[in-house]
Design a protein that fits this description.
single chain, alpha/beta, 5-stranded antiparallel sheet, 38% helix
């Protein structure tokens, strides 16, 4: 239950906004065209502005506040660690760093028992790729279209959405391929089994024509996040695992967004019974309270660096404040049944509720997801599956999605909107009442989207 309450202080909000506009350079934005909301506070599933407006956070910020805002146990752990030891270099053995690594390793699949800590997800992907190349002695890395892996040099080149285009050097050793997505199948499939089989054949053909001996790694989001929350069909990830084993390729699963309860399991890989060679994580490991990410490493790859130095490191690797927040987060998730709550809310509330909305709103082409990780594919025409807005639409072309998002915010829900989709990604701690509140607001906002259908 919330103990904080939004109180209106427009003057303070205006001061925050003015300082922001004077000095803050925002990511992914044309600086002169944005109008960022000044946020006064947050707790649980909500945050609020200086005008007293409260928003149900169905975006989890950037799909990272898995335990909600201001969880008291995590706040206390950060405070206690700060009083004891704020920072220490990564070359030392520290109790809280070792405990964070142990708790992560305890939950990762298979023998992914060594943890290399980073400051976030993109750096985790960078280091996973570096490890794979050094382990195999091969240069190329394969990744999927409709993916996002981060904004640093290798990670942005691995990314399969338009954010890559301005930074794509065409010399990063990355080859893209099509992963399965039945609703918009690149393989003209008419069943999940067919999509799985054809996607695996396409991947293997890509490897064969690129030269298996040149391919170091395949990097996949276990369940793609920003690209659309496309849960892979049964057998696909197991098939990728088999292909990697056959050609001596390192299998990297990116769980930066899908991990730590988001899909209703500790890691999304648990749904598929697959163990990668490297697993990247961030976001939900401590709900972003302090920047933290990492790579979980298999015994075989870790052994590569037993006598050979690993040529990579970060000043803040395993930062004590970040590790303390991770320890508190993981323990709170276990003690409070937060992963189980995410699974239950998905199965009993969000899944059925979203499918019911789809039946009544012609703008909803498909509902897909699991746990508290869902997407609504919005379309102009259900029959043709034409997206509500064109791919990578901007400006006037994106007006229908802009109108939908504005309707959500006006009614007190903060959505996660990307391309022609709205993602339904509340905290793993979301209550049934809060989930139903969000569904009711989505119901109203989808009426706005319906106005743009054929």
């Amino acid at each position: 239950m919330s103990t904080q309450h939004p109180t209106a202080d427009p003057a303070a909000g205006a001061a925050v906004k003015a300082a922001d506009r004077a000095h803050v350079f925002h990511s992914w934005s044309a600086q002169g065209l944005i109008d960022p909301l000044a946020v006064a506070g947050a707790e649980g599933s909500y945050f609020w502005d200086y005008d007293g407006n409260r928003y149900l956070d169905f975006s989890c910020q950037l799909v990272n506040t898995n335990i909600g805002h201001q969880h008291p146990k995590v706040v206390a752990a950060i405070q206690e660690q700060a009083a004891r030891m704020c920072t220490i270099a990564p070359g030392f053995a520290v109790d809280v760093r070792a405990e964070a690594a142990r708790l992560v390793a305890e939950r990762t699949p298979g023998d992914l028992d060594k943890i290399f800590f980073t400051n976030g997800g993109a750096e985790a992907v960078e280091n996973a790729v570096r490890m794979a190349r050094l382990h195999t002695g091969r240069p190329k890395v394969l990744s999927a279209y409709r993916s996002y892996h981060g904004a640093t040099a290798a990670a942005i080149n691995l990314t399969g959405d338009p954010r890559r285009w301005p930074s794509d050097t065409a010399s990063a050793g990355v080859v893209h391929f099509w992963a399965p997505f039945l609703y918009r199948s690149p393989f003209h499939s008419d069943s999940e089994q067919q999509e799985c089989e054809r996607a695996l054949a396409h991947l293997e053909n890509t490897i064969v024509f690129e030269g298996p001996a040149t391919v170091a790694a395949i990097v996949l989001e276990t369940v793609p996040g920003t690209a659309g929350i496309m849960v892979p069909p049964p057998g696909y990830l197991a098939g990728v695992r088999e292909i990697c084993d056959r050609y001596g390729i390192v299998f990297v699963l990116d769980e930066v967004m899908a991990g730590f309860g988001r899909t209703g399991r500790w890691f999304a890989a648990d749904h598929f019974g697959v163990t990668p060679d490297l697993l990247t994580f961030a976001k939900g490991v401590n709900s972003g309270y302090v920047p933290l990410g990492g790579v979980a490493i298999s015994a075989e790859i870790a052994a590569t660096f037993d006598e050979r130095p690993y040529p990579g490191g970060l000043t803040y690797s395993g930062h004590p404040l970040a590790c303390a927040s991770a320890v508190a987060t993981i323990n709170a998730m276990a003690e409070e049944g937060i992963v189980e709550n995410a699974a239950r809310i998905g199965e009993q509330v969000l899944g059925p509720g979203l499918r019911e909305l789809a039946e009544r709103h012609p703008s909803v082409g498909e509902v897909r997801g699991t746990g508290v990780f869902w997407a609504l594919e919005l379309v102009k025409d259900r029959a043709t599956r034409e997206p509500l807005v064109p791919y990578n639409a901007a400006g006037e072309a994106n007006a229908p999605m802009g109108a939908f998002a504005a309707a959500c915010k006006k009614s007190g829900l903060w959505p996660f909107v990307n391309m022609n989709r709205t993602h339904v990604v509340p905290p793993c701690t979301v209550t049934e009442e809060e989930a139903k509140e969000g569904l009711a607001i989505l119901d109203e906002a989808l009426t706005v989207a319906d106005g743009f259908t054929a």
